[in-house]
Amino acid sequence: MDIIYSTWPWYVAGPLITLTMFLLLKMGKKFGMSSNLRTMCSIGGAGKFADFFKFDWKKDSWNLYVVAGVIVGGFVALQFLTPTAPQINPDVVAKLQELGINSTNTAFLPTELFSLESLLTVKGFAIIIIGGFLVGFGARYAGGCTSGHAISGLSNLQLPSLIAVIGFFIGGLIMVHLIFPLIF
Amino acid sequence: MKKFLSFFGIGLFLGILFIKSEVASWFRIYEMFQFKSFHMYGIIGSAVVLGIIVVKYLKRNQSKDFSGNEIIINSKDKGFTRYITGGIIFGLGWALAGACPGPMYVLLGSMLPSILVLILGALIGTFVYGVLRNKLPH
Fold it and tell me: Residue A4 is part of which domain span?
């Protein structure tokens, strides 16, 4: 049972991600977790506002089935299979304390950012909704996210995916090193 | 129903994987951008190295999928601006929210209302991109 309850090491998790990509290719699809957002916009009637959302989303309904599975899997894992929080490098724990985040090593997500109390403040709400907005906007602009570009795209040795992944890291480093000290 | 169950099953597996490997944890993403842990790099790196071998194998053997059709992996369109700009915008959000699209859904299982707002934000972002698409440099 230890295998289930403890953190899965990188050399287990990485190959299992490749296995998922392989299975999706064998099922005639591809591994990408952000195009379903476009599908949902289309279902919600976004086609009335932009041609980008006018496509035969029924053909893409499979990615909603995957999302449904991901939601249930996440629930099961978080509620029943994860007794310990991620254990983070001590240097990082200290850095986070300087930013006022003290829930490191005790929670899966920082309660300072994701709790209901935080969500009900202007700043807390803004951080979450802007974070989501940037992910959704950026993923479609770049034509893929971590799974589509970093995993599927790099596995296919595509130059556009390499450019996008370099962009992911430029953006992430700017946020963590330049913007976090301003907002926290 | 069989189609639903097979894709649902893959999602179920991925959801557990995203939590148990902690790639859906905000802390892990922060740690990655501080270059203080090999964990995330090991996951992405090993997935890509193995992925390259798998894709090469599938292409060399002109492998078929389960329904008997040849597996075709379409290359992304050539370009630079959209990939670097979109990538940077995505990266800003990835680090701020500590989650990319897959993990966002996974985190619904935490029962935190914030995650619904996060996904709403991602939907709005997708929608705004769709509306502005023709005005953006690609």
Answer: 1-83
